[in-house]
Records
---
Amino acid sequence: MRVFVTGASGWIGSATVDELLTAGHEVVGLARSDTSAAAVAAKGAVAHRGDLDDLGSLRAGAGDADAVVHLANKHDWGNPAETDRAERAAVGTMLETLAGSDRPFVIANGLSGIVEGRSVVETDPSPAVGPGSDRGGSENLALEYAVQEVRASAVRFAPSVHGRGDWGFVTWLAGAARKHGVSGYIGDGSTTWSAVHRTDAAQLIRLAIEQAPAGSRLHAVAEESITTKAIAQALGEALGLPVTSIDPSEADEHFGVVGHFFGTTMTAKSDITRDLLGWKPTGPGLIEDILAGAYA
């Protein structure tokens, strides 16, 4: 298949491009800069210039593709309303282009805010509905297009999609540890996260394109529950730093933007995903990755 990938030069996107090419697919990657275009082309994919605000470029990329993977997001923490607006407009444009074609559309989402008090399961709908909601309600918007003959599925990623070269949450935690000279966890460290290795996440995206039925919610989760204290202890050992508790009132100051997420339990199960697609994660676990020096 010819697969159009937004976010193709990103952390998950670049691994997805590798996975798709290895499986024999042709990849066209959205690139908003010369640097991104060069990175996409260096992998053997075709660079397609544009960004999430260039709806004409998105329409053309989706229109020429046999499948679409949407991984890009503005992630503008200072202006979340703009991030949500751009996300919904971009997703809506690509879905309208695919309507009536029965072509696959895979959209990325996270686990935060879906349910409280237990691990998220695939049958839990996202509460984000409509333009004013988180990510512009793009997951629900995509799944609604199943009735318009788009084979849409949502892949919800664990808060840690880890590996060597990661620039996500765990990298920020490592940066805070270096800055303050201690590897911290919040309160008693009982808050828990799910995790998945980047290569396993990429494999799931490929399987979703190839096999997922329309309307599927899929979980890129290899490890359901890791305590934040265990993460801090592993970072402390890898970085040669002491490990300490950070008072919740000081978390934002100590950890920065990631403090809110580090103090929030974000876990999910992936049993339905594994049974549906035969997905079998084989990458190292998060603690194993940290102790092996992925963040050192």
---
Amino acid sequence: MPDKPAALSVSELNLKARKALERDMGEVWVEGELSNVSRPASGHVYFTLKDDRAQVRCALFRQRARFVSAPMRDGDQVKLRGRVSLFEPRGDYQLIVEAVQAAGLGELLAAFERLKTQLDAEGVFANARALPHPPRRLMILSSATGAAIRDVLAVLSARWPLTEVTLIPVPVQGKEAAPAVVAALGLLNRQSQLDPERDAVLITRGGGSLEDLWAFNNEHLARAIFHSRLPVMSAVGHEVDITLADFAADMRAPTPSAAAERLVPDQHTLKRQLEHHENRLMRAMQARLERDSQRFDTLRAKLRHPGEQLNRQRQHLTALSQRLQRATNARLTQQRERVNQLKGRLTSQDMTRLHQAEQSRLQQLKRRLDNAMQRQLETRQARLTSAARELNAISPLAVLGRGYAIAQDESGHVMRRAQDTQPGQKLKLRLGEGKLSVEVKRRYKRS
């Protein structure tokens, strides 16, 4: 019977299918309508993407889902970027989603990137001035009724109520928003020349879709922020939202609340720090007082009445004077005894005999000196004679005396080889006695 073909298990089949899909399809963009959107406790999002004739299951995992700012609802028209794959346990063909956009946003994103590249090349995003911390007077450009201004004011009031806040209401969405913000920013810069207390500007609004935030991608607004004399902080949208206003500002905050936190310190933290430093200072002062008190007690115990101190010094001085008197008397007695001893010795000496002895000693030393000088002279004479013989033995003149000669050219250089001369060249020959002037007739090779 013929061999049966090898069969794949179901898991092997699904594994091969998944690898083939991921290898051949790769990453794709797909547009369609959301359906059956599900958000389990895991944080992942599962849904179906469909059109009039087909549908595909999709999975948006938690790591990517947190970057999607717009809500995902059934019926929304979206564009998805993802990888085609297969869920092996059920054999379900699916799309692993990496990014989600509302349909129609592609053109806006392309325009955003073009304008961002242009402004970056012009240096509009080069601002990096430090904002005063905390600012004395803060001007806020925002909607007067939005949640963003409420969050900012609440944080400022809780953290640092000393900052004077001025709200300049401006629209933050729609066609009139960008011109209004540009005009308000220009007005603040002109007024700051008359009122130097104004020292910082905050431009802020809450989150929204790309279309909602599009006013803050305006070229004129970005340039106005760049040229602003007052330092500007931008806090537009949520953390994942980035606008051209954020790039042009001196500082960006991810949310309006975060902007307020960065602008001012926390008074409660400062109070705790002050209390901590106060406690440390009090402990240090107490320890210093205790040390000084102990030192004072020690010094007071050592302190004596001046009269008592004078009596003690007088007694000490008297004792020293007595010791000095005794030492002086003893020294004088010793010196008198020494003088008497020397007088006795001098009287007992026979001066004539001492003179004769010294005279004999001087004659003996003279004879020893004469003998030593004679021996030294003979030794030096012998060494000189020997050196003269050695010098004469190695003297060039002695060599010349044995029949040799030294040849020199007209410059005085010694000629050592026949090849160094030329026929007709004048040479000087130095002999043992006298010199000769000769002319080279012919050169001979060494034989």
---
Amino acid sequence: MSTRTQQRPAYRCTECGWSTAKWVGRCGECQAWGTVGEAGGAPTRAPAPARPAVAAQPIGDVDVETARARPSGVGELDRVLGGGIVPGAVVLLAGEPGAGKSTLLLDVAARAAQSGPGSVLYVTGEESASQVRLRAERIGAMAPRLLLTAENDLATVLGHIEAADPSLVVVDSVQTIASAAVDGAAGGVSQVREVAAALIGAAKKRHVPVILVGHVTKDGSLAGPRVLEHLVDVVCQFDGDRHSRLRLLRATKNRYGPTDEVGCFDLSDTGITGLADPSGLFLSEDRTTPVPGTCASVSLEGRRPMPTEIQALVAASSLSNPRRTTSGVDGSRTSMTLAVLQARLGLDLGGRDVYVSTVGGARAVEPAVDLAVALSVASAAADRPLVRGVVAIGEVGLTGDVRATVGVQRRLSEAARLGFTTALVPRHGADQLKAVEGMRVHPVANVQEALLVALPHEV
């Protein structure tokens, strides 16, 4: 039987695998510089057809029970993954150093070992076994069926998986494991690709879920080849402000569930816990006494409404260029909102310093918090508090109009649950909103109308 001879592309990108017939300095797929190199000029032969080990079957006869998600014991993680961890799935968890990735996965491994059908294998390549045990004792993650090994060799890791036959494998991290069959140091492009492919093959063959920890680069992207993100089933990003206890878990890729869910965690000295209701971190403890310069809003993290309190301070300035300082909000959007207040409402901010911040280290960068920023600054400038129990939702345009935003109904329901009684929303689309018990909704067309409701007297 004759075979066809195919000529390989002359050059290939080591990051994403993109191929080209001639050398270029920049990859045409992932736009990386200096990653295109020779792929080898030896011709390859097309493989001859082989007899399949398992015959193809009708789609209705495929067993779906093996693909059912199983709860991990951590509710916020299950929320992001779409109900739990699917057997045979490979999850890549990326995040900055110190974000709490190892602490989270050690807690997940302990809970899975306590409630799961089998043992859990935790492979650490960055720390010694004694260091991991000290952390486990500190966060209360000691479980009899939690197996721990400190290993950096891929073949030995695969041997541990074969011998232990675990129900879950955690590898911390994929950049620290190396294969003796591949040249280069651990963490290199070839090594990461080989290690990931071997672990993915073991996961699919044994129907055991594998969670890989991945490092990130300076710009926050996942370190290693881009093909790694295509090989795994789920890619999660674990991040948070270093000075805040809040940590957010997002899925940027998920073959088994949605990618618009967000998990909230509280990281402390005693461990990490899921936050089903994180509103207490972002709102002042005492909301019974109105204070000038404060206004609440509700932002959306994926499909999850997150209440946020905006605080503003307006003070006389001795500088020729008054300060405009922000923390937790978009500085550019805040500057535009201040310009609207000056140009459209005649608010005098020219010789005054303006400080705008969020409570609890929250990040409220979406346009829907513009109206809350405008009201808090106007309240601070007038030195009068807004009406009690008010929440503002809406984007502010350069003409001073309040523009429509998405998810207003979910935001109102969350605000009503937290005890807010008055809501300012964009007029456009307000007629389609359903009534919320205990909430008076005021549709407004511009910032001036919003001020007339929130500040009864003219600013």
---
Amino acid sequence: MTPTSSGPVTLDARDVPLGGVRGLTVHRTLPYRDLPTVGAWCFVDHFGPTDARMEVLPHPHTGLQTVTWPLAGLIRHRDSLGSDVVLRPGELNLMTSGAGVSHSEFSADTTSMHGVQLWVALPEHRRHGAPDFEHLPDLPAASGAGWEAIVFVGSFGGVTSPATVHTPMVGAQLVVEEAQLDLEPTFEHALLAVDGPVEVDGVTVQHRDLRYLPVGAEQVRVAAGGGRVLLIGGEPFDEDLVMWWNFIGRSHDEIEAARADWESAPTAGRFGHVEGHDDRFIPAPPLPGVRLTPRRRR
């Protein structure tokens, strides 16, 4: 369904085969037609449970933060800042691209893999300049009647994540029986049905779908039977975004320049070098035959 500002709506997940060496299908709910963002959250991919392995060679990013949240399995992250860490369920990897960064992600064990990959659009004051990376193994927990949470971004349930973000926002993993949850009314929110169908304010949200709640909601009732639900939200993001491949900019020309920089120097230059891959990398796809325009909600 197409979301509007007049009320909540369910965003249906669409299957996206990533192909290549990954051989992985993800279930994507953001960006959605007519709704490019929820707060500054601009990308939500839910993957697994699956026995497929994650094998993502070095690739570039601009204008965003990657938020990697594993639910099962271990992920080894390496980047052009020299980071080399193994990410476990309940831990957060947060990479800020600034003007340019590159990284790789590979499965670090042979168990079933399950998780969510999200992107956050960087505002004008932070989308330029130096990249950064945070690995946060100790995140705050909160609980209430019928629910418990790990808060990986922003504040929820009286606790605040140490993760560095650049716009007002929230991200939390909830385990919910049935509960009334307090929300920040200046935020728009969305809830991802991670483990199976859930009810949000009496509406059934199918497994992997995202329920969008516009600004103004002070509470939401969720029934998940002890399953996990991902809550994201933030102040509406009012900057134009041109999104293509792994880049976020403000114009076609910015995206074209980023692609050219990656293709001309994929293991050095603007995006740096990721150790351990023998100069292998993911090449950029061709640009479309039309000029890219900003994604705007309607």
